[in-house]
Design a protein that fits this description.
This protein folds into two domains: about 60 residues, 434 Repressor (Amino-terminal Domain) (Orthogonal Bundle); about 45 residues, no CATH class. About 70% of the residues lie in helices and about 0% in strands. The protein has eight helices and no strands. The longest helix is centred in the last third of the chain and has 15 residues. The N and C termini lie far apart (about 40 Å).
Length: about 120
């Protein structure tokens, strides 16, 4: 990946989103993302910042190709990022689940944790 445009195309592929969905996440058009991926347009600083923020991409890697593409986050940082995404999302089911869990008493939470742990060990 020699150019920033090649690395943006990699980011689109790595996201496992369509170009349209990728574009929506960074608030640009699908045509703009396509022109970036093809090297027909150069990204603005804002577009670079949006890609890095939305897809956990290292700005240094995106701009230069140096280092690793993905930023390593510790568990607390990852949890905060997930909470921010849930808060900004339109997924009312996830929000209802979190609110319902938080309203449970400790013994009820223990039952839910045991259930979830049984899913993750299979």
């Amino acid at each position: 990946m020699d150019t920033i445009n090649d690395r943006i195309a990699w980011c689109v592929k790595d996201s496992k989103l369509t170009k349209t969905a990728f574009a929506e996440r960074i608030k640009v058009s699908q045509q703009f993302v396509s022109s970036l991926c093809l090297g027909q347009t150069n990204p603005s600083d804002r577009t670079i910042a949006d890609i890095c923020r939305e897809f956990n991409i290292s700005e240094e890697w995106l701009r230069t190709g140096n280092g690793e593409p993905h930023i390593k986050r510790d568990e607390d940082e990852e949890f905060i990022k997930i909470c921010e995404e849930i808060n900004l999302s339109d997924d009312d089911l996830v929000k209802r689940i979190i609110r319902a869990y938080w309203a449970l008493d400790e013994s009820e939470k223990a039952v839910v944790r045991k259930l979830i742990d049984s899913f993750s060990t299979k």
